[in-house]
Amino acid sequence: MNLNNELNLAKIAAKQAGDFLISEKDNISATIYSKDKDIKLQADIHTEALIKSILEKDSSFPILGEESGASVKELGKTYWVVDPLDGTANFARNIPISCVSIALISNNLPVLGVIYDFNHDDMYSGSKNHKAELNDLEITVSQVQEKSLATIVTGLPAKTDFSDAAMQKMIHDFQSWKKVRMIGSAAMASVYVASGKADLYKEFGIYLWDIAAGAAIVEAAGGKVSLLNQNDAYQVDAFFSNEYLENEHS
């Protein structure tokens, strides 16, 4: 698969979406859904529509969107995956950790990813045919080899088990790491690993659109990716790391 055209198209769509989120923030920040630990803004809906219009103009691949679902009944073997605003709660509270995430899936594997950190005008990208880049400069994963020296980034998806037993297991795991970070955006966590800012990202029950682009970028940066236990709701258990911490799946 020649991914040059798709990569350029995804970058164009991500940039326009990010510019829209910045310029229209005051007009699209109204909450349209908030239940338990989940939140959705007008920004999510409007930005996804913009991205889809750009992709559909120059690509024949169907689209799986966080907000609108699948654009066709059967997505087939190759399709786009779009998260128009990963880090919605951060965006709503003016915490500058959020992004636009666009991926291409082929044969059930992410083969291309673009993540635009519009708060800092940082464009991350990578594919099976392209090295991982940040603003057109190559990035690679870290060389940290031991958990006791490593930084892990993780999160708590909206449907996380918050029971005492589950939280205690998580705390026990945290004790093995040098530093633990929760930043409120799985896509940004992914590119932190890809660019060596962190050493491992893992999250259970995260949605495919949150991490598909990041998976492609981490692999292009020399990292290891594992997406396990995908269900019908497109939730997966995700593990991204440098080559030394690749077996950290517990």
- CATH C-level name of the largest domain: Alpha Beta
Number of strands: 15
The rounded Rg comes to 17 Å
| Nearest-integer average pLDDT | 91
Helix content: 25-40%
Widest sheet: strand ordering: 4-3-5-6-7-8-9-10
CATH superfamily of the largest domain: Fructose-1,6-Bisphosphatase, subunit A, domain 1
Q: Might you state the CATH topology name of the largest domain? A: Fructose-1,6-Bisphosphatase, Chain A, domain 1
Which structural class is indicated by helix and strand composition?
alpha+beta
What proportion of the residues form beta strands (DSSP E)? 25-35%
Q: For the terminal residues, how far apart are their CA atoms?
A: 34 Å
Characterization of this structure:
The protein has seven helices and 15 strands. It is an alpha+beta fold and 250 residues long. A hairpin with a 6-residue loop joins strand 14 and strand 15. Helix 1 runs antiparallel to helix 3 and helix 6 (186-194) packs parallel to helix 7. It is globular and about 50 Å long. The mean pLDDT is 91.
